[in-house]
Amino acid sequence: MEKVNNFPPLPKFIPLKPCFYQNFADEIPIDYQSLVKRIYHVWIFYCITLVVNIIACLAWWIGGGYGVNFGLAILWLILFSPCGYVCWFRPAYKAFRSDSSFNFMAFFFIFGAQFILTLLQAIGFSNWGACGWLAAITFFSTSAAAAVFMLFPAIMFTMSAVAMLISITRVHKIYRGAGGSFQKAQDEWNSGTWRNPPTREAQYSNFSGNSLPEYPTVPNYPPGNQWP
Q1: What is the pLDDT of residue 15?
Q2: What's the rounded Cα separation, in Å, for the pair 37 and 187?
Q3: 133 in Cβ contact with 106 (< 8 Å)
Q4: In sequence order, what are the residues at sequence separation of 6 or more whose Cβ sits closer than 8 angstroms to the Cβ of residue 52?
């Protein structure tokens, strides 16, 4: 059955079609569905944080700050919302869907960079377009009302960074526990299977004759009559 792209869900009056097919129950193994959904929710929360950051940067500007922060905040929303989905959530989704080492590695590198950037946004350096802790606390002496608005994205950036750290740690633990390595990612790159890796079901069903699918572990059966 042909899968029709369903994400992002766009209203019918918009003359554009969804770019991706996303179905956690259909494509992600049940053991990893909650983790992949959590990474998806991290992306959503980060996008919401960028929206709140725009409002706070506007308050920062009105309170006597620099307008460049407001402009950069809009740029970060336009840039990081779609790029976050495409560059680190989709690799994580495809990695668990297809057990793809290349996509796992892409997720680790890009998501790791995203974590560092979010950490810097939580700190809140001046003229970075991010209302972090440093920017909010130091602005209390100028405008307490604006600084209160600036505390909201500071808290949310911090929560995003913590959620990202937990997510990447859990994914790395699962990947290394399953025997994943950089060499496997290189093999996928050399063979070209990283472009369109087959699903796990396709990998296990694509065999003929006396060949059998290679399962990651060998089942341990109770000896003798020790069956429950």
Answers
A1: 87
A2: 28
A3: no
A4: 152, 153, 156
Would you state the pLDDT for residue 36?
Answer: 97
- Measure the CA–CA gap between 26 and 24, rounded to whole angstroms: 6
**pLDDT at residue 99 in the model:** 84
Q: What is the DSSP string of 43-55?
A: HHHHHHHHHHHHH
pLDDT at 211: 40
Of the candidates 142, 140, 117, 115, the residue with the CA atom closest to the CA atom of residue 130: 117
- Give the single-character DSSP code of 89: I
| Nearest-angstrom CA–CA distance, 136 and 124 | 8
Could you tell me the CA-to-CA distances from 149 to 55, 110, 121 in Å, in that order? 8, 30, 15
Neighbouring C-beta atoms of residue 138, cutoff 10 Å = 13
Supply the pLDDT for residue 219: 43
**Residues of the chain under the 50 pLDDT cut:** 194, 203-228
Q: How far does Cα 32 stand from its chain's mean position?
A: 14
pLDDT at residue 181, rounded to an integer: 57
